[in-house]
Amino acid sequence: MFDWIPLPLYTPTYFNTLLLVALLILLHASQYDIRDRTSIDFFNITGYFLVVLIILFIGLRPISGRYFGDTSTYNQIYSLMESGQEVEIRKDFVFNYFMKFCSNFINIHGFFLLVSIIYVTPCLLFSKKYFGQYWFFAFFMFIASYSFWSYGTNGLRNGLGTAFFILGLYFYNRKRVMYIFFATGYFMHASILIPIAAFLVSGFYKNPKAYFYIWLASIPLSLAGGSAWISFFGSLGIAEDRTAGYLTDAEINLEQFSQTGFRWDFLLYSASAVFAGWYFIFKKNITDRFYIHLFGIFCISNAFWILVITAAFSNRFAYLSWFLMPAVIAYPMFRYKIWNDQYKIFALILFAYFMFTYFMNVIK
Description:
The chain is mostly helical and 364 residues long. It folds into two domains: 1-188, no CATH class; 191-323, no CATH class. It is built from 20 helices and no strands. Helix 1 runs antiparallel to helix 20 (342-363) and helix 6 crosses helix 7 (135-143). The longest helix has 25 residues, at 7-31.
């Protein structure tokens, strides 16, 4: 484990390491051409090293509820399972039975390491499939995203659910396999129903303008409706009890969530991906079927979050779209020729994208 890193510095160490990598990419882009074979080889080696480091750093973190949220809760449940005590499982069946199975063979640190592998690997596979020899840059955007760290160390079930959704997208052209992974993600955490529903809707009605207008309309609807939307979705029973509780148990959750209300900063963060999709599809005429589908999933899922943005713990719903932001922003830039000096522009975009993460997690 990384016990030699003081707990207060553990999370900042992660983000400061990524800051160094982001600066390296920015500096490299100012001097070299990404198509150069030496550059590609360099970032391949750097990328694999970073994959291993991130898996180990997340998986072998110390057990601390103060610094890693639900890590201590999972540790307590795992200890009960290890001791042979009966633990009733009524929801998130894949995750809980997986935890119960692992408790027969490995300790809690081994379990968290295995969870880390499952969490990080789909991002790697997705990046390698859709970005080819430039996979490192997409992968870096995934791990440099605002909530990636927290859902690898705190909201594990949410994080694993989205990981299996990404793995499903890896098998986009093999529908049966894709839906199996979607279903697995749902039974990891029921909130994955939201991006699954967005996937189905945007796959059935293939009109990116409609997705864009849905997203735009959600902003005034949220400002006007406020708590009415929270009550409405909370009453539908579309998710398991704890997930629905993020919407309805306002007084309880307010004690645990430091900032509520209409989060304009998070809305602007989401808008960066919507703007990217709008720009690439409508201004640069990208007609890629997979990309348009991704854009639809993001817009619909993010619109749902905007409608409930004032709820305590609405960040749990924000992640159900945010986990796709790296793909929405980066995909066209490594599949199509869009600008001159495209690598330099991407490096600037990536750096700005990461700096939001760095500011919110380290500086703020």
